[in-house]
Design a protein that fits this description.
It contains ten helices and ten strands. By secondary structure, it is of the alpha/beta class. The protein has a domain at 4-94 and 191-262: P-loop containing nucleotide triphosphate hydrolases (Rossmann fold, 3-Layer(aba) Sandwich). The strands form two sheets. The protein has a six-stranded mixed beta sheet with strand order 6-7-8-3-9-10, sandwiched between helices. Strands 2-1-4-5 form a four-stranded antiparallel beta sheet. The longest helix has 25 residues, at 122-146. The termini are far apart.
Amino acid sequence: MAFLEVKEITKKFGETSVLKGVSFEMEQGEVVSVIGSSGNGKTTLLRCLNFLETPDGGSITVGGTTVFPTEKAKEKKETNGLNFGMVFQSFHLFPQYTAIENITLAMDVQAKERIKRQGLKLLERKAALKQAKAQNEETAKTLLARVGLENKMNNYPCELSGGQQQRVAIARALALSPDILCFDEPTSALDPELTGEVLKVIKGLRDEGRTMIIVTHEMQFARNVSDKIIFMADGVIEEIGTPSQIFDDPQSEKTRAFFAKASE
């Protein structure tokens, strides 16, 4: 059984079918890049995996456990951030918080809920929460160092470059230890000179064995970093294969047309 199994996922917005039965599998530690023209369902697929959108049909299984459809999957807060982490193209950092606070915020909320369920007395609860917050701060410092920003932990987003903000967003996504890390065009909002620093971090995560799904328009990066390439068109997976299969010998006419247009 594959680590991630996505079967016949569908999603409509009004009368418009965006995902029309998307199915694929990936193993733990694999990197899958999703390519294709804008408006063909790539971002919607990631949002469905993260339960930012609820699929209309199909199933999602992670590590042998079905995470959709289940009763818990209907309660988005129960699953969001546990199986999948999301890095958005526009960073989505909280401007009123420093870099380290952006990372610890979700961890602290999670710790507070966990401690609350333990039924501790007030003083015990306060002590446990204080200890958890201290541990979360150390974790955040380690993650900021991992993305090369240990000296920026007290800076606010407005004091960081776009590339630095995206690296903070990556650290934030890693903080909750998701099984699968998803990137939605992580460099599209960056100047070309800042793109390289973000791609370097993603390559480092690949080398660590992280399981990742990357929606990207960076074709050379997708070719170099991926174990598998998915080409989407018209809300379906038109073609799937290794980078050499997809880039050097595409079988679909739509895939060939996409590359021809991209090279113009």
